Target: Tryptophan--tRNA ligase
Amino acid sequence: MTITATPSPTATGAGLRSAGLEHRISRDPARFRVLTGDRPTGPLHLGHYFGTLRNRVRLQDLGVEVFVLIADYQVLTDRDTAERLQEHTDGLLLDHLALGVDPARSTVFTHSAVPALNQLLLPFLSLVSVAELGRNPTVKDEIAHSRQSAVSGLMYTYPVHQAADILFCKGNVVPVGQDQLPHLELTRTIARRFNERYGDVFPEPEALLSAAPLLLGTDGTKMSKSRANSIPLGATADETARLIRGATTDADRHITYDPETRPGVSSLVLLAALCLERDPHEVAAEIGGGGAAALKRTVTDAVNSHLAPVRARRAEYAADLTYVRSVLRAGNERAAAVADRTLEEVREAMGTFR
Ligand code: ATP
Ligand code: MG
Model:
C-alpha cells in the first residue's frame, strides 16, 4: 500500500522521477552510491525518519553503498556558534545505529574531519553565479527563520558546500526531504559545468523523495530540529504524548485529511497513518467526530508503538558511547581517503599544482 502526503508541484515531478529511480536501483544496486546527511543542531525527529532516514537504511540493505554526513560546519549557516555539538553528534550517531545503519557497510562522518572535501568548495564556487545563489527558495526560507540579524556568506554558499558533500564521494542518489530539491538541482548544475569545463569527473546525482517529503511539525510548519516543533526519535513515550497534546489543530471538530485547507490536523493524521501503514483518509474517517483529543490519542499511540523498538535499541547504544564514537572515527578515516582521491582527480582535471 502507498501512503502519499500532498506534495508541491516540484515535489510531484521529483516524486515521479523517484519512482523511476527506485526501479533502476532495485535492478542494479551496486551502480549507486548514496550521500545524505543532517546538521547536528538537535535531535533527529519524525520528519527525518519518514522523509529520509528510512530510505537510507533500506538502500543500505538493498546493497547500495551509503555515506551519512554529520554536517557540523553547516551548523554555522544560521547561528553564531555551534552549541552542544558533541551531544548532538552523539545523538545523530545513536539514531542511525538504532535504525539499522551498519558501520561495516555504511560510512558515517563529519565535515570537520575531512579537509579534502571542504577544499572542493573553492573550484565549485567558481562555477555558480551570485544571482543563482540568491534565488534559492530554501535559502530564503532559512534566512527567514535564522537567529542571526545579518545573513552570513556561509548561508548563501552552503548549497555549494552541499555539492561538495555529495560529489566528493561521487554520490549519485540523495534521499532527501522536499526542502533539499533546490540544492540538489544546484549540485547537478555544478557537476555538469565542472565536467563541461574540465572533463568528466562527477555524476549528476538524483534526488530520492519518500512518500512524506515534507512532514509538518506541531505548529503546522515544516518539522525542524531548530524550530521547537518536532517529535524527536529519542523522546520518551511521555514526552511524545506531551508534544502531540500541544500540537496546533483547528476549530472544526470533525477530523478529515485535507492537507491544503487543514495542514495542522492533516499532518497529525498523516503521522498516524505513516506509523500504522494505513491510508490517511481512512484514519481520519475512523476518528471522525471524535475531535482533536481522539486524534491526538491515536497519533500518540501510533508513534509510541512504532518507535518502541527503535528507542529500545537507541538506549542500548547510548550505554556504550565509546563504541558509538569509534564508529565515527572509522567513518572519518574512510571518508577522508575517498575525499583525497577525488581531490587528486579534480586537481588533475583542472591542471592545478600538486
Ligand atoms: P534544522 O532546523 O537545524 O535545519 P532540520 O530538521 O531541517 O534541521 P536538516 O539537518 O536540515 O534537518 O535536514 C536533514 C534531512 O532531513 C534533509 O534531507 C531534509 O530534507 C530532511 N528533513 C528535515 N526535515 C524534514 C521534514 N519535516 N520532512 C521531511 N524531510 C525532512
Ligand atoms: Mg534544515
About this structure: Residues 38-39, 41, 47-48, 51-52, 176-177, 179-180, 213-215, 222-227 surround adenosine-5'-triphosphate (ligand 1) (CB under 6 Å). The two ends are 54 Å apart (CA to CA). Residues 225-318 form a domain with the Tyrosyl-Transfer RNA Synthetase fold (CATH 1.10.240.10).
